[in-house]
Structures are given as structure tokens and as C-alpha cells.
Amino acid sequence: MAGIQGLRGTGTFDVDFRPKNYRELFTLLEPNGNAPLNALLSMTSSEATDDPEYKNFRDELPERKLTVDGAVASASTTTITTDAGNDNLFAVAGTILVNSATGEVMRVTADSTSTGLTVERNIGGTSHTIADGAALFISGSAFEEGASSPTGVSFDATVATNYTQIFRTAFKVTETLRATNLRTGDKEDEMATKALKLHMQDIERAMFFGKKHESNGTSAQPRRFTGGLTNSISNVLDRSTASGVMTEDQFDRALIEDIFAFGSKQKIMFCGAKVAGHLQKFGKDRWAPQVVEGAYGVNLTSYNTFAGDLMVHLHPQFRQVPGMENAAIIIDFPYLKYRYLDGRDTSLLRDRQSPDEDAVKHEFLTECGLEMLQDKTHAYIKNWNDVAA
Question: Chain-wide mean pLDDT for the chain?
Fold first, then answer.
């Protein structure tokens, strides 16, 4: 039994445990139901917000890689033009640059501009030419004795935002129906159970497919939409450019080079039926079915690689949503958080009927959203239609 990074506890609760709200009650009762993402998010660090718009700062170390714009043939040429980019500004006087293709070592002799470099060529070596599009990377610095300090360079975090979205699911029964003895049981309780399932299904779909937006933002009653994973993840592996085909080797390379390039060494993949079939065709000796402790009983299958462990779950709603049978969303749970407006997590609001109605009306209401703490730690595979030998 293995734990999942980013999920709290061991998944066992003593007799005093009580769900705090209907969301946790639902995920506790139906761990493999329609909302496995919400079930797992219930085990992460959910956090209240006191504003419907919430923000977080994202920061990462720069690659400090420069791309040459135009071939430089002569070793005596000391001026190099590069593609515009923020990483160029890290090449201050004294910086060492290396041409990844030829191994040529250069020393920057003047602070770079957004597209220009002045360098001392071929440090300790023979003459080289520099090809158009060559990649130069910063490899330390070198200064003479008694030199003054170099120009300072810094970088700032970026700000990401999202909104809480108001989800409402109502159900209504007449007083006559409430008083009728039905062989199928209490109709009001039945409708409450079904409404809660639909409510959680709505939240689950929004967290996957929602688009961040605010309409009527300047009015007293704006409408907000939370951004979901498919519209927030920038690390997208679209197989339509490869006729929808991905081999086992290509999948393993994607895991090494893209999916596990950032973040944790253990991630969860929610996939459609066709992708599950692809994975079933190869790497069978690397599959280790197991129920993961601490995940409300959500069944996961482990796909083990040198890059990291991929915990796979066939998402039930991906069977219902068109276009998701050949897709997969890979989540790094320590970098994902459930946010709810303070006091507005999932609750059942009773007696919402009009005063003169001969009926009762109740509704489930949640004001919540998804917060992605980092972007590159997650991945989205789409249009994976087939595998090839």
C-alpha cells in the first residue's frame, strides 16, 4: 500500500470522524463515483478564500538559454544577434556562454541587450562557426583579479488568478408526493441523493473543462466562471500532429522529457477509455494494480518508470464527455488546491420554495474554484487515437 504525494493522512478515520460538509460526505460514500478528482481533492489542503477572486505567485529558475538569430561564420566576429527573450539579459559582462552544438566557449564582454551579444570567441580552443538557430547556454562566469562586481540581474514571480464559481442544484417535491407511501422509498430523500450526485458531477466537470471568466464585472451582481485544467495547463501533448499515434517509446520519452520534468516524482493520470486501452497494450510488466492508501478508496494503477510513478485512474465521466476517450490529464497534487469562498462550501439549503407553494424545494449550493499553484507540473495529453509498434 503506497501513499500519494499531496494527500493528507492515511485514509483511515476513527469513530469520531464526521464529514464537515456534503462534499466530503459525498466523496466518502462514493469514492469511485462520478467525481474522483473531488474525492482526492478532499484529502488535500482545501483552503477558504475571503474574495471570489484569488491569486497565487508562481516562480521558477530561468533556463538562461539564448537562441542565435543568423549564422556567424567568422571566429573573429564578436557580435552575435539573438532572438528576443528575457533570458538574454542574464548574459552580463563576464558571463561564460557555451555553444551546445560545437562546444565553443565564449565570454561576454559587455552587458547584453534584448537581441545583441558582444563576446570574446573560442576561449581556449579552435575556430568554430555558429549556425543560425544555435542554442547558447550560460555556464558560469570568469573575472580577472581585482575586478569589480558584475551587473545585477533579478527575476520576479508571475501572478496567476482564478475565480470561485457558484454551483446550484435544486430539487422539488409536492406536499402530496411527500405524504404518499411509495414502494421505492422516500421520494424526497431519493431526489436529494440524485441532486447531490449531479451537483458534484457539475463541479467535477467545471474543474476539468471550465474557462476562467467574469461577466458583468462592473455590476453589483457579476457572474464568475472558474478556470479548469484543460484550459489552464500549458504543457499540452497534442498527438493530432502525429496522426494521433504514440508508441510506447514516445510515451516513455514524454514522461521523462515533459511530464516528470517538473514537480513531484509521483503524479495521477485521469484518462479516457481509449487511452486506458493504449496503456494496456504495452508495458504490462510495469503495471502494479493497487488501492492507494489515503485516497478515499479511489482505485489507481501504478505505471512505473525511471522518471517517476504514474498513478492511473480511468475517469468515469470521460466516458460521457465527447472527445475525452482519447485524452488524459496528469495532475501533480501538491500543486493543486480546492478553494471555496469562506462559509460557502457545499451545503444543503432547505425550504427555498415560495411561501404560497404546496411543495418543498431544497438546493445544494457551492461557491468554489480550482487553484493551480504551478503550471508546468501538470500535463494534458489529447488526440491519442492509436499506438504503433
Answer: 84
